[in-house]
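The instructor's notes for this session suggest beginning with a concrete chain rather than abstract definitions. Hand out the sequence below and ask the class to guess, before any prediction is shown, which regions might be ordered.
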Amino acid sequence: MRFVLLYKSGKPETNKPPSPKEMEAVGKLVQEMAQAGVLVGTEGFEPSAKGARVRINSGKFTVSDGPFTDSNGLIDGYAVVKVKSKSEAIEWSQRFLAAVGEGESEIRQLREMP
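After discussion, reveal the predicted structure:
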């Protein structure tokens, strides 16, 4: 089973990269996930000021450039893991949140295409 672990920091968005301490803690966990064979891929995102939102309504597109004021729901990064169960995905997500110290993770199972 593959799951996407979506990370939302819960902190106000800034242009600062994660601290060296945060990078070290996350780096160790990512290495452990890779060694365990569960990590498919992971990345963090640049601030929303460098992004855009594209919407369609009644066939008309609107494009909004960042930054986005509703930073509560912004996704700061993700990991794709291949694990045996949702409970295992939850365990890895809890370990990630412990490493970063704050925030929330939404866990979504990926559809396996035939």
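Then share the key points. The chain has one domain: 2-109. The radius of gyration is 16 Å.
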